[in-house]
Amino acid sequence: xxxxxxxxxxxxxxxxxxxxxxxxxxxxxxxxxxxxxxxxxxxxxxxxxxxxxxxxxxxxxxxxxxxxxxxxxxxxxxxxxxxxxxxxxxxxxxxxxxxxxxxxxxxxxxxxxxxxxxxxxxxxxxxxxxxxxxxxxxxxxxxxxxxxxxxxxxxx
Length: 156
Ligand SMILES: O=C(CO)[C@H](O)[C@H](O)COP(=O)(O)O
What we know:
Helix content is 46%, strand content 15%. The two termini are 27 Å apart. Helix 1 (12-24) packs across helix 5, helix 2 (43-54) packs across helix 3 and helix 4 runs parallel beside helix 5. The longest helix is centred in the C-terminal third of the chain and has 17 residues, at 133-149. The chain has a single domain, classed as Ribose 5-phosphate Isomerase B, Chain: A. It has a 5-stranded parallel β-sheet with strand order 2-1-3-5-4, sandwiched between helices. It is built from 6 helices and 5 strands; from the N terminus they run E-H-E-H-E-H-E-H-E-H-H. By secondary structure, the chain is of the alpha/beta class. It has helices spanning 12-24, 43-54, 69-75, 89-97, 113-125, 133-149; strands spanning 2-7, 28-31, 60-65, 83-85, 103-107. The site of ribulose-5-phosphate (5RP) has 10 residues, from helix 3. Its EC number is 5.3.1.6.
């Protein structure tokens, strides 16, 4: 799978670790930075990475900052991106099964390496539930909100 990755300084080390592991697993990683632990502004890296997901240049995105919410906040402003902050594998499972998220956001300051790998592994392997009406309906309702309020990337 082609995966866009991004982080700020607080997520840099975990991003690097996850990137190495994803590449070993056979995935192609498009790394949008940052490239050190030097203090930086998250949106400079997450915004272009989220655009790559929105434009379908990458199938999924995995963004790492200090606690995760900042990356999700930025990414969810982009049409076609559904970003979820996950702090454990159960969250990661539901973020795919119930909401069909295409971006995973994790916090390098709060999630240890072992749990982070498990979160990514579960999130990568879990498919959305498509045979239960309520989940399909809910995903469609969120898509309708995007259609109404977000600009399609072809219109920008
Ligand atoms: O977690 C974050 C956003 O979700 C950021 O990593 C955090 O806000 C960065 O703060 P600082 O510059 O003080 O390290």
